[in-house]
Amino acid sequence: MIRVRFAPSPTGAxxxxxxxxxxxxWLFARHHGGKFILRIEDTDRERSTxxxxxAIFRGLDWLGIDWDEGPNNGGPFxxxxxxxxxxxxHDYAQKLIAAGQAYHCFCTPEExxxxxxxxxxxxxxxxxxxxxxxxxxxxVQQRLARGDKHVIRFMLPAAGESIVEDLIRGRVVFKNEVLxxxxxxxxxxxxxxNFACVLDDHLxxxxxxxxxxxxxxxxxxxxxxxxxxxxxLPRFAHIPMILxxxxxxxxxxxxxxxxxxxxxxxxxxxxxxxxxxxLGWGHGxxxxxxxxxxxxxxxxxxxxxxxxxxxxxxxxxxxxxxxxNILPERLVDLCEPLVVAKxxxxxxxxxxxVIRLFQDRLVLIPxxxxxxxxxxxxVTAYDPKGAEKYFKKDNAKAILSALGQRLGQLDPFxxxxxxxxxKELAKEMNLKLGEVIHPCRLAxxxxxxxxxxxxxxxxxxxxxxxxxxxxxxxxx
Length: 476
Hints:
Helix content is 48%, strand content 10%. The protein is built from 20 helices and eleven strands. It is mainly alpha-helical. Among the domains are: 1-71 and 240-325, HUPs (Rossmann fold), CATH 3.40.50; 326-375, Helicase, Ruva Protein, domain 3, CATH 1.10.8; 384-475, Arc Repressor Mutant, subunit A (Orthogonal Bundle).
């Protein structure tokens, strides 16, 4: 069975890179009818927090990425928090020691610093010199009995190659000689990333390891551990980095600092899923995908080797597309609290009609607040450029006077009749229709851009439209 995992470290919120890794794994599992596992790698005791755990869960929940096994779900391969698996790591570390493939190292941090400095002075890579490999078994036992602080290191093969047959990058060859005897268990008894990762992936029967290509350099060490235990390898797939438009590594200056923050800004989760999926993956020229289409289309063959570029403009465009396609009732539910917070309680029918009028104009949900203000507040100022362009024309007063008189007498005050008034007036005054619409738009909204004019006039109503046209005439 296809079994993949997302294994975040709870040292902060879920960011775009982590969300993309989770999504690719989730899509791969769903596409193949496999299992998606969430594992929390919380062995960094200084930085891991419960708050970060909750932030990761909230981010995944908001995106709609559910897990088959993991925290809150359980499963046959738990526990799914690494801090609850310490006995497993210690047991397997002892097996490597007993097999002569790992050893205790008593070098202090100060001694290691001296060795690194000496290697650098010789212009050599700062590799561990394997000095504790040569300790006599009796000395090791004495020092352990004495309680000397120590780590457990892997005994690296002296020569050879570690070959990664990567599903995205192809064959990648690492020379073992450039590695050193890396640490498996730290002096505090907690495992290192490479050791715990291999054990957990094997014991949880992970079939494919899909992760960011910043982990590619860890893979040869992990392959050596698989070989030391005599285990078969999972398939590896290292997905490309995400860069900003300036080609620098993605950081908070390129956008929000966490996935959940995009919810607060006003993005829809389906738009975020669609956008994140397209960061480093493609399926022909298609840009818009439903969740089901993503599941059906996703494959590792569609993942590029090149870095993905995070483009906020593209995300905004995509979010606008999703807003246009959601049910109007849902749009009202999303926008109503924001409008009420700004303009106070409103008649719900009127408020709903206002919100729906802007559905094809919103990029972010909170945009509604600034766009719709003239439906709830009096117009007290006019766009300066608009006033210069439309109010200072010689016929501006005549246009508004005639329009105000005719609209004031209109009954019923409905869109079809309103449109007829505008067109008849333009024809009588030998004007283009826009020459009638533009000054009216400015008069009743204070703006040069609104939803379609006849809809706005109808929704504001005869009383408001007449009053605002009279105010504009006084301004002229």
